[in-house]
Each structure stands twice: as structure tokens, then as C-alpha cells.
């Protein structure tokens, strides 16, 4: 018997919340008596396992601000969870004051999430991450420019030579589309990319999409979080901004995911333009290396 049948008995689908262009299915269900739940199915075993782990181990500490796991069917890769009330922050029309309040709450929520389990150490994070980025570029680097490739080369080398990294529970898609707002209260959903990750990486996407061009929201977010990124975190963010954006430009272009490609292109252009010469931590720029 499947997870929804075991928990709810007969239930009807009241909304399909699946994100276009992905293999994930997200359905809002209404069971007998009116109880509403989310049923999420993923064709990726890795994504299922990551979300299952996050909902099992870390989300309970955040209560109604995150989905709470009701049941799981590992064979079918199905997760049944509670509903987090609200609308996506990125879709709301708010006053500047309301926006600052929402981003301050988001920062506080992320800090709580990062503290749900003790830190650990990733001894080869940089080498592993660089290998992943290179695998994304193995089929070609179109439409990256010569300047993109030059800075990407430096960033990959810096990534590969990083020492062991402190790691913490991380969401890794902490952005306005996954932050829900209801009557001024902020919650977060979609934990399929969550895992123990190098400290600082979880600031990356919200910075790329919002904070880098809204200083007022950046200030509110880190006030809510309780502190600014330290120099180590800021350095890692700078490296990963280049590597991640470059990989997304290439892969999203190949998959004809225009919106993702255009967003990543804007991020990469800004990162390349501001990249310091010589390369960080060196007296002269790095020489070219094979991608």
C-alpha cells in the first residue's frame, strides 16, 4: 500500500504544484474530513533521499515553518508531508518595509536550520565540487566566452586546492520561490537539494538572485541571521558563484531552459566583471588549465 493510502485513505488532488521543466511531482491533496497534505514524488533517488533525510532529521526542529514528514514510500520515492501556509515570496507585491521584514525572518529561519545538527568536516569538498562542475562541462562549454573560461579556470583551480571545509545542514535552494509568506510569517519548502555542505554555500543562491542588487534586503537578511558572512564564507561564495553560474549557463542552454540560462548568465557576467586580478591569494594570475 502506498504512503498516501496508508495515511489518508481516499484523497483527492486539489492542486498540482509541480515546477515546470523538472521531474518532480508535487500534489496538494485533500483527504476525508478536509485535511490537506503535500505528496511529493521524485524520479531521482538522490533527491528523494536528501529530502527524506532533511524532513526526518532537521525539519522537526523548525515546526510549522517547514513541512513535517507524515510518511514515506522509499520504493516509490514518495514523501507525504504537511502543508506550509503562504505564497512564494518572489510572487508577492510587498512594500519595502514588508520586504525587509520578510527577509529578516528568512535570515533568522536559515540560522535556525543551520543549527539543527552539529557541524562536521568535509575533507575533500573543493576537489569533489570541482569534479562535479567539470562533469557538467564535459560535453562542451558553449555559450561561455573567452573571459568566462579564463575566470572559470582560476575559480576551479582555487576550488580544487581548498583545505578541508566545515560543513552544516544546508538547504541549497534557499530563494524567494521556496520561501512562503503568510500574514508576515515566513516558512521554507523544497529540501531535495539539502545536505551537509560547506559553510557559506547556503548563502549563495539568495545572494545571486536578490541580495546582490538589494542592499536593504541584504542588510535585513543578515540582521535576521545574526551575523554577516565571515571572510572564509565570502571567499567560498565568490569562487562558487563563478563555477556554479558557468555550469548552469551551459547545462540550461543545452536543455533549452531559457529562464535558468538567462538568470545564470547575469550572475556570471557580474562575477566575471568583478573578479580580482591577480587571482586571490597569488602574486600573479594563474596560467590556463584544461577544463
Automatic annotation (TrEMBL):
<dbReference type="InterPro" id="IPR002575">
    <property type="entry name" value="Aminoglycoside_PTrfase"/>
</dbReference>
<dbReference type="InterPro" id="IPR011009">
    <property type="entry name" value="Kinase-like_dom_sf"/>
</dbReference>
<dbReference type="Pfam" id="PF01636">
    <property type="entry name" value="APH"/>
</dbReference>
<feature type="domain" description="Aminoglycoside phosphotransferase">
    <location>
        <begin position="21"/>
        <end position="232"/>
    </location>
</feature>
<protein>
    <submittedName>
        <fullName>Phosphotransferase family protein</fullName>
    </submittedName>
</protein>
Amino acid at each position: 500500500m502506498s504512503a498516501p493510502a496508508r495515511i489518508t485513505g481516499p484523497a483527492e488532488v486539489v492542486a498540482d504544484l509541480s515546477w515546470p521543466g523538472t521531474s518532480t511531482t508535487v500534489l496538494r491533496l485533500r483527504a476525508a474530513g478536509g485535511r490537506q497534505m503535500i505528496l511529493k514524488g521524485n524520479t531521482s533517488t538522490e533527491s528523494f533521499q536528501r529530502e527524506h533525510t532533511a524532513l526526518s532529521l532537521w525539519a522537526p526542529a523548525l515546526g510549522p515553518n517547514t513541512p513535517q514528514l507524515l510518511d514515506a514510500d522509499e520504493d516509490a520515492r514518495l514523501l507525504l508531508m504537511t502543508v506550509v501556509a503562504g505564497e512564494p515570496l518572489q510572487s508577492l507585491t510587498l512594500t519595502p518595509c514588508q520586504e525587509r521584514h520578510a527577509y529578516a525572518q528568512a535570515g533568522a529561519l536559515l540560522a535556525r536550520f543551520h543549527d539543527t545538527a552539529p557541524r562536521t568536516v568535509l575533507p575533500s569538498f573543493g576537489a569533489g565540487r570541482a569534479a562535479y562542475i567539470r562533469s557538467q562541462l564535459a560535453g562542451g562549454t558553449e555559450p561561455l566566452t573567452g573571459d568566462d573560461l579564463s575566470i572559470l579556470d582560476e575559480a576551479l583551480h582555487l576550488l580544487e586546492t581548498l583545505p578541508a571545509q566545515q560543513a552544516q545542514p544546508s538547504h541549497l535552494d534557499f530563494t524567494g520561490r521556496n520561501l512562503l509568506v503568510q500574514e508576515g510569517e515566513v516558512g521554507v519548502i523544497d529540501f531535495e537539494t539539502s545536505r551537509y555542505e560547506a559553510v557559506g554555500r547556503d548563502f549563495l543562491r539568495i545572494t545571486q538572485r536578490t541580495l546582490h542588487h538589494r542592499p536593504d534586503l541584504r542588510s535585513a537578511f543578515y540582521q535576521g541571521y545574526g551575523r554577516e558572512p565571515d571572510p572564509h564564507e565570502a571567499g567560498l561564495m565568490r569562487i562558487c558563484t563563478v563555477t556554479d553560474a558557468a555550469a548552469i549557463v551551459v547545462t540550461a542552454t543545452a536543455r533549452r531552459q531559457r529562464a535558468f540560462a538567462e538568470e545564470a548568465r547575469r550572475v556570471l557576467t557580474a562575477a566575471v566583471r568583478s573578479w580580482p586580478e591577480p587571482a586571490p591569494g597569488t602574486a600573479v594570475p594563474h596560467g590556463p588549465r584544461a577544463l
